[in-house]
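Re: weekly structure request thread

Next one in the queue (63 aa):
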Amino acid sequence: MNKTIEITVSPTGQTSVQTKGFVGGECRDASRFVEEALGQRVSETLTADFHQATEREVVTQQH
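Done, posted below.
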């Protein structure tokens, strides 16, 4: 799957940033520069890819 960062700007100027194709915390690292340029974050919704990778990381660390 391709890794993309999708930026949406509403007619009122509100922006949203959505990452696709990233797993775990790498999505935050990839989109950090965009979020910093856009200003203060209002909310964050973590996708299933984020949680799935986090669970795998925890299991790996326990071995």
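Residues 4-62 form one domain. The chain has one domain: 4-62.
Next request, please.
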